[in-house]
Design goal:
heterodimer; A: 101 residues; mainly alpha; 5 helices; 0% strand; B: 398 residues; mainly beta; Porin; 16-stranded antiparallel barrel; two-stranded antiparallel ribbon
């Protein structure tokens, strides 16, 4: 068990180090939508599509009308962390929910 | 005294008269027409509750009871766009008593777009069932699979610190979590001999200086986020009490989880497949069994290979593309689960369970669940046998 434990700790340290290096070396602090030039090559998913995909992974997708904009900001921050969503996903989903409520 | 009262009255009346006479309302904030600006700080109460009727029968007897409402408020305090506090209380009526539990209470801070730190008592990302799927309004069946909850082998929460986040891989995405907690403690049999060798995950104060370390990696390989494959581990080098003979007993747990959720036009609705395999490996230790022979208590030492595992797979289908509004709100669920506790332990058990359910979704967060479940056990607390259950539950999230 001691050997397994040591290997496991080493794995965790490597994973943590990798995540830290990658996340801290990112040059962008905020998600930004694709530019027109990028648009020609890449069609991004809409917030509505991401709402349908990400929310349904655990529970039924919520009705945008059930909360106001301020509530959706809190819920989005909570869900981003709880469901481990990417910043891009939650930014687009939150924008969709606030536009559709 | 009279003079003082008269002076106060004169001052009060005079102040009011002056105010009414000379107030031109220029500085009155209530007359401004500026739009309402919501604050960044916000407090919300969310949560869920459920109630229902349980009917359980085995070879000997049938028991039927309305089960008391469970109420689980979740408190969210958003301090800023990056700082959030969450806490969940759980009120459950059980055994003619009200049980109150603190499911989790932690503070979270978004460090950057790929990393968030959490500290406090939080749900552990050991697989996905306990962290994401166990709330009654999310769980598609009124019961939990074998291997979870009381006497389960999968840890549900811990006190410690965690880093988590997700990466967008340009279509696919990857999420991770690494954490350290107080870890579990070993039941040595001194209080409950029939549970000697089990891990107890409610470890509010560390019983030794050894922390548990764990983590989960989840990969969503397809751009439509329909599929997620996860691998979780949880390990500690010591689970016994400090200075006891069990102090150096270690434990290593791992879990594999799978999820597929997608609306398939050819099938006319949403297909949801979930599954998780848990494995627990605890170092062997020697425990004491007490026999009573000829009126005298005799102690006997015993040991066993302390390895347990559990598995569940669940399939549900919602005909969301049906023409009938009634059909659109239905959901059909089936689940298989099993649990194997160590051979030779007092709590040795081999169980298999099948559950089938029909749900009616009143709204996206309110569901009526009707389910039938049959469990075939050998060993365990109840001595084994076949137990059938019929459940009608109403769960609501808010």
């Amino acid at each position: 068990m001691k050997t397994i434990y040591k290997i496991f700790i080493a794995g965790i340290v490597l994973l943590f180090s990798g995540a830290l290096i990658v996340s801290c070396s990112s040059t962008k602090d905020k998600y930004t939508a694709v530019t027109d030039v990028e648009e020609e090559f890449k069609i991004e998913k809409s917030g509505a599509q991401m709402w349908g995909e990400a929310c349904n992974r655990c529970h039924l997708a919520p009705s945008p009308a059930d909360y106001n904009d301020t509530d959706w900001e809190t819920i989005s921050l909570h869900m981003r962390i709880r469901a481990n969503l990417t910043e891009k996903e939650i930014t687009k989903i939150e924008a969709f929910l606030k536009s559709a409520n | 005294m009279k003079k003082l009262i008269i002076l106060i009255l004169i001052f009060g009346v005079g102040h009011t008269v002056y105010g009414q006479t000379y107030n031109n309302f220029d500085t009155d904030s209530t007359t401004t027409t500026e739009p309402f600006n919501p604050s960044k700080t916000q407090f919300m109460i969310r949560g869920y509750g459920h109630t229902g009727l349980n009917t359980m029968s085995n070879d000997d007897e049938t028991e039927s009871s309305y089960v008391g409402s469970a109420f689980a408020p979740i408190f969210l305090f958003k301090h800023s766009d990056k700082l959030l506090f969450e806490a969940e209380l759980e009120f459950v009526l059980e055994g003619n008593e009200l049980e109150v539990g603190l499911e989790y209470a932690d503070v979270m801070y978004v460090l950057n777009k790929n990393m968030t730190v959490r500290a406090g008592k939080f749900l552990l990302p050991f697989g996905t069932f306990m962290e994401r799927l166990h709330p009654a309004w999310i769980n598609r069946l009124p019961t939990t699979p074998l291997g979870y909850g009381h006497d389960g082998i999968a840890p549900s929460s811990g006190i410690g610190v965690e880093l988590r986040g997700a990466f967008d891989l340009g279509g696919p995405s990857l999420n991770y979590a690494v954490y350290s907690t107080n870890g579990p403690r070993l039941k040595d049999g001194s209080e409950e001999p029939e549970e000697a060798g089990m891990l107890m995950f409610q470890n509010f104060e560390d019983n030794n200086n050894s922390k548990a370390f764990g983590g989960r990696i989840g990969l969503l390989p397809f751009a439509d986020s329909s599929t997620e494959i996860g691998f979780s581990t949880y390990s500690t080098s010591k689970v016994g009490n400090r200075d006891s003979e069990y102090e150096n007993v270690g434990a290593f747990l791992y879990a594999l989880d799978f999820s597929f959720v997608k609306q398939i036009p050819a099938l006319g609705g949403f297909v949801d497949i979930k599954g998780q395999y848990n494995n627990s490996d605890i170092d062997d230790a020697t425990f004491i069994e007490i026999h009573e022979e000829d009126g005298e208590e005799e102690e006997e030492e015993y040991t066993f290979g302390n390895n347990s595992n559990s598995f569940y797979a669940q399939l549900s289908y919602r005909p969301t593309m049906a023409e009938s509004d009634f059909m659109k709100k239905l959901e059909f669920v089936g689940r298989y689960s099993n649990f194997n506790a160590p051979e030779g332990a007092e709590w040795e058990e081999q169980s298999e369970q099948y559950a089938f359910g029909l749900n009616y979704w009143l709204t996206w967060r309110s569901v009526i669940k009707i389910a039938y479940q049959t469990t075939d056990s050998v060993g365990g607390h109840d001595g084994g046998g076949i137990t059938n259950g019929f459940y009608i539950h109403w769960a609501i999230g808010f």
